[in-house]
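User: two proteins, same treatment. go.

Assistant:
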Amino acid sequence: MKAGLVTFYHLHHYGAILQAAATQRALATLGWECETIDYFVGQDIRILKPPTTPARAANDAYNTLHYPALKRRWQRFEDFSRANLNRTARRYESREELERARLPFDLLIAGSDQIWNPTIFPDGRFDPVFFGAFSPLRKIAYAPSFGVGHLPEGMEEELNGYLAGFSHLSVRESSGRDIVREAAGREAEVVLDPTLLPSAAEWSALAAERTVAGDYILCYCISRSGALEPYIRRLAEETGLPVVQLCGTRRKLHPKAKLIFDAGPAEFLSLFQNAAYVCTNSFHGTVFSVQFQRPFFTAVAPAELQDPERSRTFSLLSRLGLTDRVVGKGDAATLLDVPDWAGAGERLSAARAGAMAYLKAALADEPWEKGKEAPAREAGPLLADRTCCTGCSACAAVCPRDAIALVRDGEGFAFPAVDPEKCVHCGICTSTCPVLRPREPKPLPAAFAAWNKEADVRRDSTSGGAFSALADYVLEGGGVVFGAALDARQHLRHIACFRKEDLWRLRGAKYVQSDLEGVFREVKKCLETRQVLFSGTPCQVDGLYRYLGTRPENLTTCDLVCHGVPSPGVWEDMARYIERKRGRELQTVRFRNKVEGWKNSHFTAVYDDGTVDTHPLFETEYGRAFGRALFLRPCCYRCPYASLNRPGDFTLGDLWGLRPDELPEQQQKGVSLLLVNTPHASHVFDQLPLVRRPFPVERAIAGNPRLASPTARPADRPAFFAAYALEPFDQVVRKFCALPPLPVRAAGKVLSPEMKARVKKVLKRE
């Protein structure tokens, strides 16, 4: 039996040619002859191309400089292709040519790589050839990729038509499975990339002789190294090994790196096979690190960190239990940790067997029944994924066996850790987790501009002092107020306040996530005998309600308009950094002091000797990084509470966006935005000694965009946390948090947004 393979292969990319060779070898092991259809889709693979643009001219200048080595590389790709790919005798350059051809195949197989990615073709549409649309033969798919998380609008019907001719569908990533399901209503199996089907020994047989003597650190980056930079540098320092850079990106990744320009596919395999360590941001770089069991670190795009279920690298590494090798996140392995190769090898063998079983069934046109892919292991309780977990502590508080503790990760955030010796798998934590339970919609809240009548309280508050009025009301009724306060070491945790005299500790914004250990249980105990006011972020308020399982009549809650919660670990390191710079200990900190008025907030530090530093917040290192959302909790960038569907009775924030002619006498002193979200809140609100003015909800959203959408994730967040994991904190601050040079700041004030975007685009180019 003979199959015709439609895939990318002629591009001089390592992954493209190796996946094509791997697919042919997999079919051969199943008794099928396979020919790759020599379909040339028009990409220009010449080393030197006509300099039609300045960028192309710069590219040619670079290639001319390294032309002898690049020519050897070009020839090695051609030689490898001839030696290891069985191709049709004729090259085809269009669908029409293929329709006229008499191809000697029993079926067609749409192979791997991004052959189903419409955005890479000149017209932005699918290429029908890669769906076998030129032939009436039966078709199967093995691991093609769409290369995008979602199809461009209006292409679902077209895709559905192309997929109709396939008897068996599989894809390389879970995002592809979702696309197929949405467009065609069919289930596609997620299978291994073809390069993982042959064994390491089979790949070794295709590798060139050792190209670099001795041990070395191999760096292979196809884009900016970003979060990998500190790993490359520290690995070289810790091990003393030389750095070898396989040139995908033009930027030199280490000052002493040996650059390799002339590696073909066989040399590529050899470099990975013999490396002592690998640092890469290439998917196939990750694949061959796994194949040859080389200790490796890999970086992925920021969007993939935020949405790992749509990442091909995460898809692979999660199957193998190796997601800790992805840098720039809190659970990344430490520098010299050895991967669990035994466990990964076991999982890879099982996944490989499952993929080959799928391929065998597809070739034979037999029904496919998925079997168990990995050995059964004891599973812990279902809790929120790390990218979604808010750290609200509800799961730990509700556990009847105290089997869950909140433990800080490498980013300084607390995540639930389950003690398997204590856990009895009762499922209470799963049923309590707010992230795993949908929230019911609520009516739109009523919005008000509000401020406290007491001038001293208002001056000591971040905005208008509305929180203090609410807290006073509860305390006067014999109740207790829970809010966030800094201790002597600048650790922020929720505390209980029973007296008005102590309320100052809870006033003011604190730009860090607070510690809730034991607090929910304390709230529950207080509710047995008195009124309680709980103030916190929306996720903390929702976590409290989920823990309690009800909304007690004597509980009042106040959630905050939240930009996102910064890392407690980063803040505490920043506090120590400030103390080292000043040579004295911090006594207290005001993140937003109204020393120059409400609209010019200052970061004020008071030291143990009575001295005071105060600077505009966004001119300080911490304030600048906070404003850029550099070290917020991962869930903040996809926050489900960034809407008007608020969990608290009240929502408090600053009433930004006031026009100069609106409340002009109040703007310097601070004005609160107060949302009344529930009937209970409406009752309490009527009794508060506040000056209040109704305010349009639409205007409230315009001034507080976090009432409509989450904070955007900055592109350099992974690089920040990669450096944070490995470098001295002072060095991290200088690199990521310092103000830009004066000329850059001046340009920022003069340039238009469009010009700024252009400059950024140029600076990002390799």
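Protein 2:
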Amino acid sequence: MTTANDGAATLPSLLSELADREVLHTRSVRHGTDRAALSKVGDRVWSLAEAQPDQHTQSIMLHWSTYPNLLEYDFRLFILATLDSPYPPALGRFTGIDQASVSTVSNWFKRLRVFATWLRHRGIDRLYEVSDRDLDLYLDHVRSIQASTGTRRQLLSAVRAVWAYAQYLPPECRMSVAEPWQGRSPGELAEDIQTGRGNKTARIAVDTMIPLLDWALRIVEDIGPDVRDAWREFRQLYTGTHPGQARFAGLPRTERLNLFLRDAHRTGAALPGDPENPGAIDYKYLACLLGLPVLSNSLGLGPRSIAEASGIPVAGDFFIGSVTGQVDGRPWRDKPITASELPELVWVVTAACFVIVSYLSGMRPGEVSNLRRGCRAEDPDSGELLVLGHRGKGHNRTAAESHRPASRPWAVVRPVHQAIDLLETLHATDLLFPTRLPGSSGRKSRRMGTLTWGSSKTIRELQRLQDWVNSTFTPTEGGVAIPPDPIKHLHASRFRRTLAYFIVRRPRGLIAAALQYGHLKTKVTLNYAKARELHQTGEKSQVASSGRESDGLQRYYEAAS
């Protein structure tokens, strides 16, 4: 008879037999993924990102070097079981789940690393050696560490997952327990008394949210078109496709320059200048205007001397486009946009679009980030404006879903469609929120169209938007245009949380919010809006008390109700 102890020695050989098998061989992967490049069981690092349905998830990597050597074999087989096998009903109240999501598997991997390290320190090298006594001691350890109750609950849930997948594991990888902690839930064990009692995400303060949305609307309507047109012209000049470069086709460098200088004399145009050296010509951009490669030495010394002796004035920078938009009845800037500041302004406009789409739709951050070109729609019967995307939550989502036709509609107001229209004309990428601008160099640029904003990128761009507005525009009454939030920095999930809070407190708002968010029960919506807290404290609606609703907020609330 073979014991678990005897079988433990077979784990390395079992993994060796599977070494060349794909880790994700039972999972659907993103469209265009090279299956030959997928991680193999024998690799020291496993990538799960290819099976993640959300394009804003850039990296899900499992580094096995972080696990204790002997226990690594047990946990490798456990992770393989979670990727290959059905989701055990014993793990939760949810039904109809085919498999654990790769995000869940990644979280188990991280939390079980703590468990594995703790086992190794106690001299336990195999899972079959783990007893009820060991789990009780581990529970004491988890309760003693400096961590949130949510983290403690996850640490215990991961251990329960190892027990729940036992039927898919070799006997030597199964813990010697009937059921961890006699069936008590991880939430109870971690003393997570807040479980299920309202959404904990802090809403954005009204004194920040209203000006933020107001400026986002202004940027999209009044400033964005100027930035878009300047960026388009710059990209045409940079790539040699600008109509004004056609007259130089086939001409030598000197003849191109002489033709340009004659036209500049006639029209009064200036040569592009270097802002770091006042009065100096920026030859990189001069070459760009002539349809030459964008290199500082592409003109040569002869043409340079001709340009310097021409008497044509030198501008303080290389200015692109024109200023047509107005803010408070005045042009939003005195001079055209410069080439050096264009990239930042493109990101500012993109962030303003993100604020409008995210806040005025109630979509989850990942649902906004994964929107694609052509997502605007209109209901043929009612004329209602829609945004079509993919649901950002659900246990049966797969990586293949992101490349299927969008099927989840969100009812929106016209500013959302205007923001999406601006994004679609700002760049040519499929995703509306690419991580890099067109023309960026390097390997990351080649993947630009396949990656979208994640949480850290969104936080940076929202901060850039707030900083740019505050440094560019000063209110007549003093202070700053967009006051900082008193609680914490802006991040995408706070928009959805804030909108729920405001809508639910308006007439018929609870039903409107439940429909917009796709909640099956209004109880979920009430938790999201944290209504209990307000009913207990008697707090009144911040919007009503402020008396400063923007037109954008008012239009949205009327449409939603």
